[in-house]
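Researcher: Next entry in the queue.
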Amino acid sequence: MDKISLVLEGGGMRGIYTSGVLDFFLDKKLYFYDIFGVSAGACNAISYISRQRGRNAYVLERFCSDPRYISMSGLATRGSVFGMDFIFREIPDHLVPLDYDTYVKTGTNLTIVSTDCETGRPNYRTTRDIRDSVEYLIGSSSIPLFAKMVEVDGLKLLDGSGSESVPIRKAVWEGFPRHVVVLTRNAGYRKPKGPSAIYQAKYRNYPKLVTSLKTRYLTYNTSMELCEKLEREGNALIIRPTNPLEIDRFERNPQRLHKLYLEGYQDAQNAWEQLSHFCQGAENVVFGQEALQ
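Model: Structure for this entry, 293 residues:
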């Protein structure tokens, strides 16, 4: 028997596509116990691990137009477009409670990927209890230029996509022979080279971070090539949007978000026969029955 990793790309509000995919998994009682997530990918994994179907989509659609959740003016008033305290404390602890007890009982390993601002390299935080890693989750979700650095355990962190948008290489390095990868970009997408002067100006005291941000398009495209190579070899199954997305990472229209959620659910449903066959025999994947350790 072998193991399968579940790898989840980020993408801000585009991550509601992943919410749809993971809700389909929950409907099928398909549970992965080793998950690698960046930014929105890691955030989506939380409700999946706590077995709270629909929670991610509900939160995004309910609060997407709430300035406490997302607001461009927040960049000036709180240092971040996204309201981190509201998203990662007020919502899960009070407004739409996260089932922390179930989360822990599952025994799922979640690896949260952020970018170490001093080294410019990915930081990997693996946990079985998200309560001890909230700051790492916030760091993973802190988009360069649009959020403050997060300081935790002597580290300064920003969004994992700055160094590793799709942590497939980490999953391979950890020895997983097979992978289910959920992307938030359509087939054939490659990240173009972006402007770099603004990174140099903003992060001039962090030269290695600047280098990573300048070359992140190369890192992303290399990860895509690895995912597709593994897929051709039969060692990966990729679920991704059928069509180019019409929303960006700061989308605030609940109808557009719900449409993308349904697309994610449908794409996962369309892949079910292949997916169920692919997962057969994996020692760290359970489907067709309730499974709590």
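Model: The two ends are 19 Å apart (CA to CA).
Researcher: Noted, moving on.
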